[in-house]
Design brief:
With 380 residues, the protein is mainly β. The chain is built from 4 helices and 30 strands. The radius of gyration is 24 Å and the shape is globular.
Protein backbone atom coordinates (compact mmCIF):
# COMPACT_ATOMS: atom_id res chain seq x y z
CA UNK A 1 0.00 0.00 0.00
CA UNK A 2 2.88 2.38 0.87
CA UNK A 3 4.50 1.56 -2.46
CA UNK A 4 1.27 2.27 -4.37
CA UNK A 5 0.78 5.52 -2.43
CA UNK A 6 4.30 6.67 -3.30
CA UNK A 7 3.76 5.92 -6.97
CA UNK A 8 0.47 7.85 -6.92
CA UNK A 9 2.10 10.91 -5.30
CA UNK A 10 4.96 10.79 -7.79
CA UNK A 11 2.52 10.74 -10.70
CA UNK A 12 0.64 13.71 -9.20
CA UNK A 13 3.88 15.71 -8.85
CA UNK A 14 4.96 14.94 -12.42
CA UNK A 15 1.51 15.88 -13.72
CA UNK A 16 1.55 19.20 -11.81
CA UNK A 17 5.00 20.05 -13.14
CA UNK A 18 3.89 19.27 -16.70
CA UNK A 19 0.85 21.50 -16.29
CA UNK A 20 3.06 24.37 -15.06
CA UNK A 21 5.57 24.07 -17.89
CA UNK A 22 5.83 27.34 -19.79
CA UNK A 23 5.76 27.13 -23.60
CA UNK A 24 8.99 28.08 -25.36
CA UNK A 25 9.54 29.41 -28.87
CA UNK A 26 12.75 30.48 -30.58
CA UNK A 27 14.05 33.62 -32.28
CA UNK A 28 17.24 34.87 -33.89
CA UNK A 29 16.20 38.54 -33.80
CA UNK A 30 14.78 40.86 -31.13
CA UNK A 31 11.97 42.13 -33.37
CA UNK A 32 8.71 40.20 -33.40
CA UNK A 33 5.08 40.68 -34.47
CA UNK A 34 1.83 40.41 -32.53
CA UNK A 35 -1.55 39.68 -34.11
CA UNK A 36 -4.77 40.01 -32.11
CA UNK A 37 -7.74 38.27 -33.68
CA UNK A 38 -8.16 39.61 -37.22
CA UNK A 39 -6.27 42.85 -36.54
CA UNK A 40 -3.26 43.90 -38.55
CA UNK A 41 0.14 42.87 -37.10
CA UNK A 42 1.94 45.24 -34.77
CA UNK A 43 5.59 45.30 -33.84
CA UNK A 44 7.08 44.04 -30.57
CA UNK A 45 10.65 44.33 -29.28
CA UNK A 46 12.00 41.48 -27.19
CA UNK A 47 13.96 42.43 -24.08
CA UNK A 48 15.52 39.68 -21.91
CA UNK A 49 16.06 42.20 -19.07
CA UNK A 50 12.32 42.55 -18.39
CA UNK A 51 10.86 39.61 -16.46
CA UNK A 52 8.09 39.32 -17.42
CA UNK A 53 7.56 41.65 -20.38
CA UNK A 54 3.79 42.19 -20.36
CA UNK A 55 1.60 42.77 -23.40
CA UNK A 56 -1.99 43.85 -22.68
CA UNK A 57 -4.52 43.07 -25.39
CA UNK A 58 -7.21 45.45 -26.57
CA UNK A 59 -10.49 45.12 -24.66
CA UNK A 60 -12.56 42.19 -25.91
CA UNK A 61 -16.02 41.16 -24.77
CA UNK A 62 -15.39 37.54 -25.78
CA UNK A 63 -12.38 35.25 -26.01
CA UNK A 64 -9.85 36.28 -28.64
CA UNK A 65 -6.90 34.70 -30.39
CA UNK A 66 -3.37 35.98 -29.89
CA UNK A 67 -0.44 35.11 -32.12
CA UNK A 68 3.21 35.95 -31.42
CA UNK A 69 5.54 35.59 -34.43
CA UNK A 70 9.34 35.73 -34.39
CA UNK A 71 11.64 35.51 -37.39
CA UNK A 72 11.74 31.69 -37.11
CA UNK A 73 8.92 30.56 -34.82
CA UNK A 74 5.47 31.41 -33.48
CA UNK A 75 2.91 30.63 -30.81
CA UNK A 76 -0.87 30.99 -30.91
CA UNK A 77 -3.10 31.27 -27.85
CA UNK A 78 -6.78 31.95 -27.16
CA UNK A 79 -7.56 34.04 -24.08
CA UNK A 80 -10.81 34.88 -22.36
CA UNK A 81 -11.33 38.31 -20.74
CA UNK A 82 -9.39 38.36 -17.48
CA UNK A 83 -7.05 35.55 -18.53
CA UNK A 84 -3.26 35.74 -18.86
CA UNK A 85 -0.70 33.33 -20.31
CA UNK A 86 3.09 33.13 -20.07
CA UNK A 87 5.64 31.93 -22.60
CA UNK A 88 9.38 32.20 -23.18
CA UNK A 89 11.14 33.41 -26.32
CA UNK A 90 14.67 32.00 -26.50
CA UNK A 91 16.81 34.41 -28.56
CA UNK A 92 19.93 33.04 -30.29
CA UNK A 93 19.79 29.98 -28.10
CA UNK A 94 20.88 31.85 -24.94
CA UNK A 95 18.72 34.85 -23.94
CA UNK A 96 15.37 33.98 -22.39
CA UNK A 97 12.66 36.61 -22.83
CA UNK A 98 9.88 35.91 -20.34
CA UNK A 99 6.69 37.22 -21.92
CA UNK A 100 3.16 37.51 -20.55
CA UNK A 101 0.01 38.32 -22.54
CA UNK A 102 -3.08 39.57 -20.72
CA UNK A 103 -6.63 39.87 -21.96
CA UNK A 104 -7.94 42.54 -19.55
CA UNK A 105 -10.94 41.71 -17.37
CA UNK A 106 -14.26 43.30 -18.27
CA UNK A 107 -15.29 46.19 -16.02
CA UNK A 108 -18.82 47.08 -15.01
CA UNK A 109 -19.73 49.62 -12.34
CA UNK A 110 -23.50 49.31 -12.76
CA UNK A 111 -23.85 47.51 -9.41
CA UNK A 112 -22.39 50.37 -7.35
CA UNK A 113 -24.87 51.54 -4.74
CA UNK A 114 -25.76 54.32 -4.70
CA UNK A 115 -25.16 54.90 -8.41
CA UNK A 116 -22.91 57.82 -9.38
CA UNK A 117 -23.60 60.55 -11.94
CA UNK A 118 -20.74 63.03 -12.29
CA UNK A 119 -21.29 66.09 -14.48
CA UNK A 120 -18.17 67.75 -15.90
CA UNK A 121 -18.52 71.03 -17.83
CA UNK A 122 -16.54 71.29 -21.04
CA UNK A 123 -15.75 73.98 -23.57
CA UNK A 124 -16.22 73.17 -27.24
CA UNK A 125 -13.39 75.21 -28.70
CA UNK A 126 -13.24 76.87 -32.11
CA UNK A 127 -11.15 73.86 -33.15
CA UNK A 128 -13.82 71.38 -31.97
CA UNK A 129 -11.83 70.19 -28.96
CA UNK A 130 -13.63 69.17 -25.76
CA UNK A 131 -11.55 71.19 -23.30
CA UNK A 132 -11.85 70.23 -19.64
CA UNK A 133 -10.20 71.47 -16.44
CA UNK A 134 -8.16 68.79 -14.70
CA UNK A 135 -5.70 68.52 -11.82
CA UNK A 136 -2.56 66.40 -12.16
CA UNK A 137 -0.81 65.06 -9.05
CA UNK A 138 -3.13 67.09 -6.78
CA UNK A 139 -1.30 70.34 -7.59
CA UNK A 140 -1.10 71.24 -11.30
CA UNK A 141 -4.25 72.59 -13.00
CA UNK A 142 -4.26 71.89 -16.73
CA UNK A 143 -6.63 72.15 -19.68
CA UNK A 144 -7.01 68.67 -21.18
CA UNK A 145 -8.88 67.37 -24.20
CA UNK A 146 -11.19 64.37 -23.88
CA UNK A 147 -10.09 62.23 -26.81
CA UNK A 148 -11.85 58.96 -27.66
CA UNK A 149 -9.09 58.22 -30.17
CA UNK A 150 -6.47 57.74 -27.48
CA UNK A 151 -5.93 55.98 -24.15
CA UNK A 152 -4.43 56.95 -20.82
CA UNK A 153 -3.05 60.38 -19.94
CA UNK A 154 -0.95 62.30 -22.47
CA UNK A 155 0.73 65.67 -21.81
CA UNK A 156 2.68 67.95 -24.11
CA UNK A 157 6.38 68.45 -23.48
CA UNK A 158 5.76 72.19 -23.07
CA UNK A 159 3.06 71.65 -20.44
CA UNK A 160 5.28 69.25 -18.49
CA UNK A 161 8.12 71.75 -18.57
CA UNK A 162 6.25 74.98 -17.79
CA UNK A 163 2.95 74.05 -16.10
CA UNK A 164 3.79 71.13 -13.81
CA UNK A 165 6.07 70.68 -10.84
CA UNK A 166 7.52 67.52 -12.30
CA UNK A 167 6.02 64.35 -13.71
CA UNK A 168 7.05 60.92 -12.52
CA UNK A 169 8.44 58.62 -15.19
CA UNK A 170 6.89 55.67 -13.38
CA UNK A 171 3.19 54.86 -13.08
CA UNK A 172 2.47 56.84 -9.92
CA UNK A 173 0.82 60.00 -11.26
CA UNK A 174 -2.75 60.98 -10.47
CA UNK A 175 -5.50 62.77 -12.40
CA UNK A 176 -8.56 64.48 -10.96
CA UNK A 177 -11.53 65.58 -13.09
CA UNK A 178 -14.59 66.79 -11.23
CA UNK A 179 -15.30 64.29 -8.44
CA UNK A 180 -13.39 61.48 -10.14
CA UNK A 181 -9.77 60.59 -9.50
CA UNK A 182 -7.39 58.09 -11.08
CA UNK A 183 -4.15 56.98 -9.43
CA UNK A 184 -1.10 55.06 -10.62
CA UNK A 185 -1.12 56.62 -14.08
CA UNK A 186 1.79 56.64 -16.48
CA UNK A 187 2.07 59.97 -18.33
CA UNK A 188 2.92 59.79 -22.02
CA UNK A 189 4.72 62.70 -23.69
CA UNK A 190 3.81 64.29 -27.05
CA UNK A 191 4.92 67.38 -28.90
CA UNK A 192 1.44 68.70 -29.75
CA UNK A 193 -2.14 68.44 -28.51
CA UNK A 194 -5.33 70.24 -29.48
CA UNK A 195 -5.04 74.02 -29.64
CA UNK A 196 -5.52 75.58 -26.22
CA UNK A 197 -4.96 72.31 -24.37
CA UNK A 198 -2.03 70.90 -22.42
CA UNK A 199 -2.67 67.29 -23.34
CA UNK A 200 -5.45 64.74 -23.52
CA UNK A 201 -7.02 61.78 -21.73
CA UNK A 202 -8.58 58.73 -23.34
CA UNK A 203 -11.77 56.71 -23.30
CA UNK A 204 -10.31 53.87 -21.23
CA UNK A 205 -10.40 55.96 -18.06
CA UNK A 206 -14.18 55.48 -18.20
CA UNK A 207 -14.16 51.78 -19.08
CA UNK A 208 -16.99 49.98 -17.28
CA UNK A 209 -19.02 53.19 -17.05
CA UNK A 210 -21.31 55.17 -19.35
CA UNK A 211 -20.30 58.57 -20.74
CA UNK A 212 -22.82 61.10 -22.01
CA UNK A 213 -21.58 63.96 -24.22
CA UNK A 214 -24.26 66.67 -24.20
CA UNK A 215 -23.17 69.32 -26.71
CA UNK A 216 -26.37 71.32 -26.21
CA UNK A 217 -25.58 71.91 -22.53
CA UNK A 218 -21.76 71.57 -22.76
CA UNK A 219 -21.59 68.78 -20.21
CA UNK A 220 -19.83 65.42 -19.93
CA UNK A 221 -21.88 63.18 -17.63
CA UNK A 222 -20.26 59.98 -16.37
CA UNK A 223 -22.71 57.38 -15.03
CA UNK A 224 -22.10 54.18 -13.11
CA UNK A 225 -25.59 53.25 -14.34
CA UNK A 226 -27.58 55.08 -17.01
CA UNK A 227 -30.72 56.50 -15.34
CA UNK A 228 -32.84 56.21 -18.49
CA UNK A 229 -33.15 54.09 -21.62
CA UNK A 230 -32.06 55.78 -24.87
CA UNK A 231 -35.18 56.50 -26.93
CA UNK A 232 -35.94 55.85 -30.59
CA UNK A 233 -34.32 59.14 -31.60
CA UNK A 234 -30.91 57.58 -30.92
CA UNK A 235 -29.12 55.60 -33.61
CA UNK A 236 -27.44 52.53 -32.11
CA UNK A 237 -24.01 51.09 -32.95
CA UNK A 238 -22.15 48.10 -31.48
CA UNK A 239 -18.60 49.04 -30.46
CA UNK A 240 -15.75 47.28 -32.25
CA UNK A 241 -12.56 47.48 -30.17
CA UNK A 242 -9.34 47.45 -32.17
CA UNK A 243 -5.73 48.55 -31.54
CA UNK A 244 -6.63 49.90 -28.03
CA UNK A 245 -9.38 52.20 -29.42
CA UNK A 246 -12.86 51.63 -30.87
CA UNK A 247 -14.85 51.90 -34.08
CA UNK A 248 -18.45 51.92 -35.27
CA UNK A 249 -19.89 50.95 -38.64
CA UNK A 250 -21.34 53.51 -41.06
CA UNK A 251 -21.31 54.13 -44.81
CA UNK A 252 -20.22 56.64 -47.42
CA UNK A 253 -22.45 57.11 -50.43
CA UNK A 254 -21.59 58.29 -53.95
CA UNK A 255 -24.13 58.41 -56.81
CA UNK A 256 -26.51 56.21 -54.88
CA UNK A 257 -23.98 53.47 -54.11
CA UNK A 258 -23.12 52.81 -50.47
CA UNK A 259 -19.65 51.89 -49.24
CA UNK A 260 -20.04 50.47 -45.74
CA UNK A 261 -17.03 50.19 -43.47
CA UNK A 262 -15.75 50.82 -39.99
CA UNK A 263 -14.95 54.29 -38.70
CA UNK A 264 -12.66 55.05 -35.81
CA UNK A 265 -14.72 57.02 -33.27
CA UNK A 266 -12.27 59.87 -32.70
CA UNK A 267 -13.59 63.10 -31.23
CA UNK A 268 -9.96 64.14 -30.83
CA UNK A 269 -9.67 64.46 -34.60
CA UNK A 270 -10.72 68.06 -35.28
CA UNK A 271 -11.96 67.65 -38.85
CA UNK A 272 -14.89 65.75 -40.38
CA UNK A 273 -13.81 62.38 -41.80
CA UNK A 274 -10.34 61.12 -42.75
CA UNK A 275 -10.65 58.52 -45.50
CA UNK A 276 -8.35 55.51 -45.57
CA UNK A 277 -6.96 55.17 -49.10
CA UNK A 278 -6.37 51.42 -48.63
CA UNK A 279 -10.05 50.81 -47.87
CA UNK A 280 -11.07 53.07 -50.74
CA UNK A 281 -8.92 51.04 -53.13
CA UNK A 282 -10.26 47.72 -51.83
CA UNK A 283 -13.85 48.89 -52.32
CA UNK A 284 -13.14 50.52 -55.69
CA UNK A 285 -14.30 53.83 -54.30
CA UNK A 286 -14.76 56.52 -57.02
CA UNK A 287 -11.62 58.60 -57.40
CA UNK A 288 -13.13 61.63 -59.11
CA UNK A 289 -14.29 63.59 -56.05
CA UNK A 290 -14.17 67.36 -56.29
CA UNK A 291 -10.96 68.68 -54.67
CA UNK A 292 -11.72 71.67 -52.46
CA UNK A 293 -8.28 72.50 -51.10
CA UNK A 294 -4.81 71.22 -50.28
CA UNK A 295 -3.27 71.77 -46.84
CA UNK A 296 -0.43 70.63 -44.61
CA UNK A 297 -1.44 69.15 -41.24
CA UNK A 298 0.72 68.19 -38.25
CA UNK A 299 0.29 65.01 -36.28
CA UNK A 300 0.87 64.56 -32.53
CA UNK A 301 4.62 64.24 -33.13
CA UNK A 302 4.71 67.51 -35.04
CA UNK A 303 5.35 65.87 -38.44
CA UNK A 304 3.95 67.57 -41.55
CA UNK A 305 1.41 65.52 -43.53
CA UNK A 306 -0.05 66.71 -46.89
CA UNK A 307 -3.85 66.45 -46.98
CA UNK A 308 -6.45 66.89 -49.72
CA UNK A 309 -9.97 68.05 -48.85
CA UNK A 310 -12.63 66.65 -51.19
CA UNK A 311 -16.41 66.82 -51.35
CA UNK A 312 -18.21 63.71 -50.05
CA UNK A 313 -21.80 63.43 -51.34
CA UNK A 314 -23.35 61.62 -48.37
CA UNK A 315 -22.40 60.04 -45.06
CA UNK A 316 -24.93 57.63 -43.57
CA UNK A 317 -24.73 57.02 -39.83
CA UNK A 318 -27.59 54.81 -38.72
CA UNK A 319 -30.84 56.36 -39.96
CA UNK A 320 -29.26 59.80 -40.23
CA UNK A 321 -27.45 61.26 -43.23
CA UNK A 322 -25.16 64.24 -43.74
CA UNK A 323 -24.64 65.56 -47.25
CA UNK A 324 -21.89 67.45 -49.09
CA UNK A 325 -19.25 67.04 -46.40
CA UNK A 326 -15.70 68.31 -46.96
CA UNK A 327 -13.67 65.23 -46.02
CA UNK A 328 -9.93 64.64 -45.89
CA UNK A 329 -7.63 62.39 -47.90
CA UNK A 330 -4.04 61.84 -46.74
CA UNK A 331 -1.28 61.13 -49.21
CA UNK A 332 -0.26 58.28 -46.87
CA UNK A 333 -2.27 55.10 -46.34
CA UNK A 334 -3.75 53.93 -43.01
CA UNK A 335 -3.71 57.27 -41.18
CA UNK A 336 -4.93 55.41 -38.06
CA UNK A 337 -2.12 52.81 -38.55
CA UNK A 338 -4.75 50.15 -39.21
CA UNK A 339 -7.51 49.83 -41.78
CA UNK A 340 -10.31 52.21 -40.83
CA UNK A 341 -11.74 55.57 -41.81
CA UNK A 342 -11.57 58.19 -39.04
CA UNK A 343 -14.72 59.92 -37.85
CA UNK A 344 -13.83 63.32 -36.35
CA UNK A 345 -15.49 65.83 -34.11
CA UNK A 346 -16.67 68.28 -36.77
CA UNK A 347 -19.18 65.52 -37.53
CA UNK A 348 -19.50 63.95 -34.08
CA UNK A 349 -20.27 67.26 -32.34
CA UNK A 350 -23.57 67.31 -34.27
CA UNK A 351 -24.78 64.39 -32.14
CA UNK A 352 -25.48 64.19 -28.44
CA UNK A 353 -23.71 60.94 -27.65
CA UNK A 354 -23.85 58.08 -25.18
CA UNK A 355 -20.79 55.85 -24.93
CA UNK A 356 -21.88 52.71 -23.09
CA UNK A 357 -18.74 50.84 -22.02
CA UNK A 358 -20.87 48.30 -20.13
CA UNK A 359 -23.02 47.03 -22.99
CA UNK A 360 -20.38 48.22 -25.48
CA UNK A 361 -22.69 50.40 -27.55
CA UNK A 362 -22.64 53.93 -28.99
CA UNK A 363 -25.87 55.97 -29.21
CA UNK A 364 -26.11 59.09 -31.39
CA UNK A 365 -28.90 61.69 -31.58
CA UNK A 366 -28.77 64.93 -33.64
CA UNK A 367 -28.45 68.11 -31.58
CA UNK A 368 -28.53 71.87 -32.06
CA UNK A 369 -25.28 71.83 -34.06
CA UNK A 370 -26.73 69.59 -36.78
CA UNK A 371 -26.97 72.32 -39.43
CA UNK A 372 -23.78 74.20 -38.55
CA UNK A 373 -21.66 75.13 -41.59
CA UNK A 374 -18.51 73.08 -42.08
CA UNK A 375 -15.29 75.01 -41.53
CA UNK A 376 -13.88 73.94 -44.90
CA UNK A 377 -16.97 74.74 -46.94
CA UNK A 378 -17.25 72.85 -50.20
CA UNK A 379 -18.48 76.06 -51.81
CA UNK A 380 -15.03 77.65 -51.82
Amino acid sequence: MKYLLSITLLIMVITAEAQQKIPLIKANALQARIIEGKDEPRGWSLDPRVKPDVYTMTKSVTKKSFRFVTDIDSIQLVLKPGESRDFIVLVNGKDSCYTRVENPPLKNYSHISPSTHDTIPFELTDYDNLKIKAIVNDRDTLNLKFDTGTTGLVLTNEAIKSKTQGISLTADNSLRIGNMKWDSLLVYHVELSGQGTDGRFGWDLFDGKIVEMDYDNKGLIVHSRLPYKPGKAYARFPIEYSHTIFCINASLEVKGKKYANRFLFDNGYQRTIMLDTVLMHEQQFPGDQEVIKKVIMRNGQGKEVPVLTVNQERFNVGNYSLTNIPVQLMTMSNPARFKTHILGNEVLKRFNTILDFQKNMVYLKPNGLWNETYKESNKL
